[in-house]
Specification:
Largest sheet of chain B: none
Order of helices and strands of chain B: HHHH
Distance between the termini of chain B: 62 Å
CATH architecture of chain B: Up-down Bundle
Low-confidence stretches of chain B: 1-5
Structural class of chain B: mainly alpha
CATH class of chain B: Mainly Alpha
CATH topology of chain B: 3 helical TM bundles of succinate and fumarate reductases
Oligomer: heterodimer
Low-confidence stretches of chain A: none
Shape of chain B: elongated
Strand content of chain A: under 5%
Strand content of chain B: under 5%
Largest sheet of chain A: none
Mean pLDDT of chain B: 86
CATH topology of chain A: 3 helical TM bundles of succinate and fumarate reductases
Number of strands of chain A: 0
CATH superfamily of chain A: Fumarate reductase/succinate dehydrogenase, transmembrane subunit
Chain lengths: ~130, ~150
């Protein structure tokens, strides 16, 4: 990679560093960043959910009255859905080989993440405000 | 033997003209015994896909809470039903497994834990700890605050 004598790439391609898939390490890096963010956020979520086992509606509303809880829930949802859509994308690319169907399912994957994201964000805002 | 996956040695078998010599094939998943590292790898992907389905349950919880008491009661009805327990246990175990095995993956990304005995040990730890966490969370849910579900 570093020995210029064997490198068949142009200087521009080398500087771009995008490789044969033309997207470089962007997908990989975003997957790891969201993974790291999810370590504390997922632990917070499980512990918080445990305090609300069997809780009635009033108790859930009180929990999200706290801006800290509402904000952490937003962050958890955003990181989780982002991580989810990146991961599902790889699964789809691995197992679906027919181009047309793959394109369609990749679109549905993004639609799913965006739909769940907006739905939960709206519900959370309605509860918290 | 000529039609077996390994094929005969070169030139040792009579073979009809125009028919290509069978090439050696790589064994597929069904051939291998299951090393614990392979099981962990496959389960990482499976739990990830399961958690994607779990976001629907999470979304239902929040939307029901935003919709009012009737919608929330309907959610609680399913969540406290045995079918709901199975979904919730699967969700909690998937989350703990994916989280712990994800930390294992991040360690690999940093270059640690590649030795075979280490990889086996950490895989076993992930299986044991994730089950322990899921059972503990459930035990707490049942017998903990407010009489549980």
């Amino acid at each position: 990679m570093t020995s210029k004598g064997n490198d068949l790439r142009t200087p521009f391609a080398r500087a771009n560093g995008l490789g044969s898939a033309k997207s470089g390490t962007a997908h990989f890096w975003r997957q790891r960043m969201s993974a790291v963010a999810l370590i504390p956020l997922a632990i917070w979520f499980v512990v918080s959910a445990l305090t609300m086992v069997g809780a009635n509606l009033a108790e859930v509303l009180v929990f999200f009255d706290s801006p800290v809880n509402a904000i952490l829930m937003f962050l958890f949802l955003f990181a989780a859905l982002y991580h989810m859509t990146l991961g599902l994308q790889v699964v789809i690319e691995d197992y679906i080989h027919q181009e047309g169907i793959k394109l369609l399912v990749l679109m549905l994957n993004r639609f799913f993440a965006i739909a769940v994201g907006f739905a939960t964000a709206f519900a959370l805002l309605k509860i918290a405000l | 033997m000529a039609d077996g996956p390994i094929g005969g040695g070169a030139g040792t078998q009579a073979r009809p003209l125009g028919r290509p010599r069978p090439r050696p094939l790589s064994p597929h998943i069904s051939i291998y015994r299951w090393p614990i590292t392979m099981a962990a790898s496959i389960l990482h992907r499976l739990t990830g896909v399961a958690l994607a389905g779990g976001t629907l349950f999470l979304a239902w919880w929040l939307i029901a809470a935003a919709s009012g008491p009737d919608a929330y009661d309907m959610f609680l009805g399913v969540a406290s039903h045995p079918v709901g327990w199975i979904i919730l246990f699967g969700f909690v175990w998937s989350l703990s497994f994916h989280l712990l095995n994800g930390i294992r993956h991040l360690a690999w990304d940093l270059g640690y834990g590649f030795k075979v005995p280490t990889a086996r040990l950490t895989a076993a730890l992930v299986f044991g700890l994730s089950l322990a966490i899921a059972v503990a969370v459930f035990a707490y849910g049942f017998f903990g605050v407010g009489g549980g579900l």
